[in-house]
């Protein structure tokens, strides 16, 4: 295979496909990546000749710009078993079927975008409803009569255009701030209707609203919706733009301009001209959490948006009577992030913060334990989903049973025995766990570089997430609207949609493949898949042609689809912000929806690789750690944890829907004895280190060689656990997970703390006793210390295992007979393959391998 074929194979592997499949595909179709993807997705087993996509369609995706969206035709969903290929069709195929989506189809009336005559430009002119244009002076004169008048106008627009009866109170507040020409930060729950806050000003004033938005897919969805509400709009991404659309936008031909942050910075001068000639009613910065380095979805270009405040104020532009107001909106900003947004955007001092509850009362949160990294878990974890959607339960049941048998053999609940303690936890610190993903994901046995790893996950969403760079949507006249078949989202035989979020691209493909294999209509979505495929998945998702989308974070922000009934997170999210943002896609019709997090509760999550500064890394660990604690929680309402995370006082106390509210907390357990013991072992060790000569502690603990000395000088939790097991018969059998959970609780109560003040850990590792701990635990006391055991502690109770003390276990290897027996046992019992240990290197060469750390 030559170099370029290799390159295609590499690309396919990056997309998440198996190497064997990739090799196969390249052999079959040659070096075209698109054809190879199609070949794999289509499935090798299919009969009939394979027709490469490149032979079917032109790939000139930018040609399809500037077209008006037509209503998608709703399909009730065919009964045949779907395959991934079903969601990977060429644009030409769509055209043949008359299936138009977004700007993909040419509306004959408007297919003149490349050469607009004046008449044509006229036809694009904003269709302001006579009654909805409202003189700004009247809007802002501040008297209550006028404010009630503008509200009446708004209500009439809402009814006539959007079919909505009235404003929500936070929308009213945001709009009255805009009417008063003030900047505003809107913090409101996902699905609460933030978009209306910036759409209404365009309809009220006849001026243009400029919306800064982070993704093409999001801009496209909103433009398409607006056109159905008879509002003209366009979107400008950052790729190769159609100059004609940009020019028309700068001439005020659209009521709303969606633009990505990269592009708006370039358009400052034309926008100033637009403000003079036509008027700009508002700059809206949607998904404003992207501004903050402390948020979950930082986008460096968002930080440059401070130019808006600087360039559109009355002191700079003499034709302006007031500053053009800026409205920043988000559903997922902690207090820290809120402050950062205000500061970074240089918003005026009078900026009003409109804050509503982040609580989503119809979302039902739960957490379940699963070894999500293993394909063998799919059958068990997705059985409910399969039952929900499947009509051929019996035949699917057979397939699933086969997978279940395999999974039984492979099941490994990940409890640590003494060997694991020594081999895993002593030698590998958490920074190295970051890299363990490389080892796990190494499909060809070779260790992969971290550069590759960054490609394995979608850390940041790219603005150009689709194969179109810009597009325009004319306001649909009412007569055309009547012809739109409205997708019935409450169809009896339709159970709503599910989105499964996974951490890596590979998992998105694998799970989608698995679900297709058992008869579901599922599709994968990750940033490395062909953009044409991604657009098709969006379309099918919006037209209810799919049941499940299996996605990385590349699919999510802002998606407004009423009937998403289930959000499954399969693997730890990286933060609660990301989790809540993604969960917020569910239940946007106000009906009950489920948000389940499947995660390996026996292991702390690791940070996915990405380039971060030192500060960002610490923040990322903090966020991950909060997320881990959310998963471990067994006693506090989950909705309460989530909204309080964003700084809200959760007045309802309980949601009455989440697993904790429904099942109740576990029984309180008195852990006085264990807590005292652990604390005393820790204190005793530190006393010895403080008081004695250098060598004493090691000798006392019977540790000889220099490596162990080094380790024991800074002993981690597992070392103390092994000491307890050695010295205290009663707790010999107590599982490591139990102690880990207890240590976490003790840390939360400030009885112990991390020794080196490192925030870079998800769990406490090197422990120091605190003064508070000394007061509470450093003496024999019968006073009970009741705690709710957390998820890992409960998990440990289900496990029936025996433990020998750490030292005993070590000593065992020295005895030839014990050694022989152990080796024999190992050979009999097939274990998961262990990769040969690589000697850890530090210094310049290891730096080279860790590009995301090099900035630290
Ligand atoms: N006043 C209202 N009354 C009833 N429905 C409304 C109202 N305002 C907005 N909606 C509906 O709420 C839905 C969600 O709106 P939108 O997409 O603006 O949410 P959002 O707050 O931007 O959410 P996200 O943070 O997830 O982007 C829309 O379908 C919209 O029609
Ligand atoms: Mg939104």
Automatic annotation (TrEMBL):
<feature type="compositionally biased region" description="Basic residues">
    <location>
        <begin position="828"/>
        <end position="856"/>
    </location>
</feature>
<dbReference type="Pfam" id="PF00271">
    <property type="entry name" value="Helicase_C"/>
</dbReference>
<keyword id="KW-0539">Nucleus</keyword>
<dbReference type="Pfam" id="PF16124">
    <property type="entry name" value="RecQ_Zn_bind"/>
</dbReference>
<keyword id="KW-0378">Hydrolase</keyword>
<dbReference type="GO" id="GO:0016787">
    <property type="term" value="F:hydrolase activity"/>
</dbReference>
<feature type="domain" description="Helicase C-terminal">
    <location>
        <begin position="480"/>
        <end position="625"/>
    </location>
</feature>
<feature type="region of interest" description="Disordered">
    <location>
        <begin position="820"/>
        <end position="856"/>
    </location>
</feature>
<feature type="compositionally biased region" description="Polar residues">
    <location>
        <begin position="435"/>
        <end position="446"/>
    </location>
</feature>
<dbReference type="InterPro" id="IPR004589">
    <property type="entry name" value="DNA_helicase_ATP-dep_RecQ"/>
</dbReference>
<feature type="region of interest" description="Disordered">
    <location>
        <begin position="426"/>
        <end position="448"/>
    </location>
</feature>
<dbReference type="GO" id="GO:0003676">
    <property type="term" value="F:nucleic acid binding"/>
</dbReference>
<protein>
    <recommendedName>
        <fullName>ATP-dependent DNA helicase</fullName>
        <ecNumber>5.6.2.4</ecNumber>
    </recommendedName>
</protein>
<dbReference type="GO" id="GO:0005524">
    <property type="term" value="F:ATP binding"/>
</dbReference>
<dbReference type="InterPro" id="IPR032284">
    <property type="entry name" value="RecQ_Zn-bd"/>
</dbReference>
<dbReference type="InterPro" id="IPR001650">
    <property type="entry name" value="Helicase_C-like"/>
</dbReference>
<keyword id="KW-0067">ATP-binding</keyword>
<dbReference type="InterPro" id="IPR011545">
    <property type="entry name" value="DEAD/DEAH_box_helicase_dom"/>
</dbReference>
<dbReference type="GO" id="GO:0005634">
    <property type="term" value="C:nucleus"/>
</dbReference>
<dbReference type="GO" id="GO:0005694">
    <property type="term" value="C:chromosome"/>
</dbReference>
<dbReference type="InterPro" id="IPR014001">
    <property type="entry name" value="Helicase_ATP-bd"/>
</dbReference>
<comment type="similarity">
    <text>Belongs to the helicase family. RecQ subfamily.</text>
</comment>
<dbReference type="InterPro" id="IPR015940">
    <property type="entry name" value="UBA"/>
</dbReference>
<dbReference type="GO" id="GO:0009378">
    <property type="term" value="F:four-way junction helicase activity"/>
</dbReference>
<keyword id="KW-0347">Helicase</keyword>
<feature type="domain" description="Helicase ATP-binding">
    <location>
        <begin position="175"/>
        <end position="351"/>
    </location>
</feature>
<dbReference type="GO" id="GO:0000724">
    <property type="term" value="P:double-strand break repair via homologous recombination"/>
</dbReference>
<feature type="domain" description="UBA">
    <location>
        <begin position="2"/>
        <end position="43"/>
    </location>
</feature>
<dbReference type="GO" id="GO:0005737">
    <property type="term" value="C:cytoplasm"/>
</dbReference>
<feature type="region of interest" description="Disordered">
    <location>
        <begin position="95"/>
        <end position="115"/>
    </location>
</feature>
<keyword id="KW-0464">Manganese</keyword>
<keyword id="KW-0547">Nucleotide-binding</keyword>
<dbReference type="GO" id="GO:0043138">
    <property type="term" value="F:3'-5' DNA helicase activity"/>
</dbReference>
<dbReference type="Pfam" id="PF00270">
    <property type="entry name" value="DEAD"/>
</dbReference>
């Amino acid at each position: 295979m030559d170099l370029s074929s290799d390159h295609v194979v590499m690309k396919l592997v990056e997309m998440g496909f198996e190497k064997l499949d990739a090799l196969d595909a390249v052999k079959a179709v040659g070096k075209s990546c698109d054809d190879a993807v199609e070949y794999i997705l289509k499935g090798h087993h299919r009969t009939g000749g394979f027709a490469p996509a490149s032979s079917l369609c032109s790939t000139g995706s930018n040609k399809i710009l500037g077209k008006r969206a037509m209503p998608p035709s709703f399909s009730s969903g065919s009964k045949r078993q779907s395959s991934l290929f079903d969601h990977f069709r060429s644009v030409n195929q769509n055209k043949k079927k008359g299936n138009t989506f977004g700007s993909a189809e040419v509306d004959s009336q408007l297919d003149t975008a490349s050469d607009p005559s004046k008449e044509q430009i006229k036809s694009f002119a904003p269709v302001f409803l006579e009654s909805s244009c409202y003189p700004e002076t009247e809007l802002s004169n501040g008297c209550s009569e006028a404010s009630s008048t503008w509200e009446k106008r708004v209500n009439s627009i809402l009814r006539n255009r959007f079919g909505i009866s009235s404003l929500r109170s936070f929308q009213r507040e945001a709009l009255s701030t805009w009417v008063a020409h003030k900047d505003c930060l809107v913090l409101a729950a996902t699905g609460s209707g933030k978009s209306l806050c910036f759409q209404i000003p365009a309809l009220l004033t006849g001026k243009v609203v400029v919306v800064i938005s982070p993704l093409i897919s999001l801009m496209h969805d909103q433009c398409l919706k607006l056109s159905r509400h008879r509002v003209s709009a366009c979107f400008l991404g950052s790729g190769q733009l159609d100059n004609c659309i940009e020019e028309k936008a700068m001439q005020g031909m659209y009521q709303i301009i969606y633009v990505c942050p990269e592009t708006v910075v370039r358009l400052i001068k034309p926008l100033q001209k637009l403000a003079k000639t036509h008027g700009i009613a508002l700059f809206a910065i949607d998904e404003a959490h992207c501004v903050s380095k402390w948020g979950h979805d930082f986008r460096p270009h968002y930080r440059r948006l401070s130019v808006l405040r600087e360039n559109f104020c009355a002191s700079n532009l003499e034709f302006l009577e007031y500053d053009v107001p800026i409205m920043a909106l988000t559903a997922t900003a902690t207090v820290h992030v809120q402050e950062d947004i205000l500061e970074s955007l240089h918003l005026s001092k009078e900026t009003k913060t409109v804050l509503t509850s982040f609580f989503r009362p119809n979302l039902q949160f739960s957490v379940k334990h699963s070894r999500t990294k293993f394909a063998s878990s799919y059958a068990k974890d997705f059985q409910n989903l399969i039952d929900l959607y499947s009509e051929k339960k019996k035949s699917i049941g057979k397939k699933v049973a086969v997978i279940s048998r395999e999974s039984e053999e492979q099941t490994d609940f990940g409890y640590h025995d003494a060997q694991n303690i020594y081999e895993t936890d002593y030698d590998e610190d958490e920074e190295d766990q970051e890299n363990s993903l490389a080892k796990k994901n190494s499909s060809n046995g070779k260790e992969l570089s971290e550069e590759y790893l960054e490609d394995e996950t979608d850390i940041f969403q790219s603005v150009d997430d689709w194969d179109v760079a810009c597009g325009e949507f004319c306001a649909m006249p009412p007569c055309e609207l009547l012809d739109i078949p409205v997708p019935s989202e409450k169809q009896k035989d339709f159970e709503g949609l599910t989105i499964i979020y996974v951490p890596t691209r590979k998992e998105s493909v694998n799970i989608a493949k698995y679900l297709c294999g058992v008869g579901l209509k599922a599709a994968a979505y990750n940033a490395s898949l062909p953009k044409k495929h991604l657009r098709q998945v969006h379309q099918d998702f919006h037209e209810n042609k799919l049941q499940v989308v299996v996605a990385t974070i590349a699919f999510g922000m802002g998606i407004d689809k009423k009937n998403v009934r289930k959000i499954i997170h399969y693997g730890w999210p990286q933060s609660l912000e990301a989790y809540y943002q993604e969960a917020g896609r569910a239940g946007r019709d106000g009906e009950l929806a489920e948000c389940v997090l499947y995660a390996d509760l026996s292991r702390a999550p690791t940070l996915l690789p990405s380039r971060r500064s030192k500060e960002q890394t610490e923040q990322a660990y903090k966020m991950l750690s909060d997320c881990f604690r959310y998963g471990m929680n067994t006693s506090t309402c989950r909705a309460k944890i989530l909204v309080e995370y964003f700084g809200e006082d959760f007045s309802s106390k309980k949601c009455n829907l989440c697993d904790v509210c429904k099942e109740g907390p576990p029984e309180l357990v008195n852990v006085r004895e264990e807590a005292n013991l652990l604390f005393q072992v820790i204190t005793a060790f530190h006393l010895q280190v403080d008081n004695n000569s250098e060598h004493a502690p090691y000798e006392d603990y019977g540790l000889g060689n220099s490596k162990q000395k080094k380790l024991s000088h800074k002993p981690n939790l597992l070392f103390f656990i092994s000491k307890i097991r050695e010295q205290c018969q009663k707790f010999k059998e107590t599982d490591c997970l139990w102690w880990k959970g207890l240590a976490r609780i003790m840390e939360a109560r400030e009885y112990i703390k991390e020794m080196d003040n490192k925030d870079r850990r998800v769990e406490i590792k090197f422990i120091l006793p605190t003064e508070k701990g000394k007061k509470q635990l450093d003496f024999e006391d019968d006073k009970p210390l009741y705690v709710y055991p957390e998820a890992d502690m409960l998990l440990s109770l289900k496990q029936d295992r025996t433990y020998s003390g750490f030292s005993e276990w070590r000593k065992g290897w020295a005895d030839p007979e014990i050694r022989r027996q152990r080796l024999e046992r190992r050979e009999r019992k097939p274990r998961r393959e262990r990769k040969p240990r690589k000697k850890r290197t530090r210094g310049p060469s290891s730096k080279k391998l860790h590009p995301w750390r090099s900035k630290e």
